[in-house]
Amino acid sequence: MSNSSTAEQTLIQPNAKSSYEVTRQDLPLSCPMPGMTLWNSHPKVFLPIEAQVTAKCPYCGAQYTLVD
After folding, report:
1. Alpha carbon 11 to chain centroid, angstroms
2. How far apart are CA 31 and CA 44, in angstroms?
3. Which domain holds residue 32?
4. Of 11, 17, 57, which Cα lies nearest the Cα of 37?
């Protein structure tokens, strides 16, 4: 059981921040991102960030910025 609690502790709280910096390694970008708990979040949506360098989630309003 300690493995599952450790795994739960490493998950990121979804929608906890209003802005996130992401890298090309995070692409394709989705909100919520991998590593975020999903049970208390909105449906997963993929965000086209490559061309504009920024993207805003239509569900929660989180702003994502692509950094190198």
Report:
1. 11
2. 6
3. 2-66
4. 11
The CA-atom distances, in angstroms, between 44 and each of 3, 5, 49 are: 26, 24, 15
Model-wide pTM > 0.90: no
Residues in the chain: 68
Residue 58: strand, helix, or coil: coil
Report phi then psi at 30, rounded to 5. Answer: -135, 155
Both tokens assigned to 6: 């450790």
Q: In the numeric block, which tokens belong to residue 5?
A: 């609690």
Per residue in 7-60, pLDDT tens? 445 777 766 778 999 999 999 999 998 888 777 788 999 999 998 999 999 999
Burial pattern 16-32, b for ≥16 Cβ within 10 A else e, equals: eeeebebeeebeebebb
Question: Are 43 and 15 in contact, with CB atoms under 8 Å apart?
Answer: no
Domain count, the chain: 1
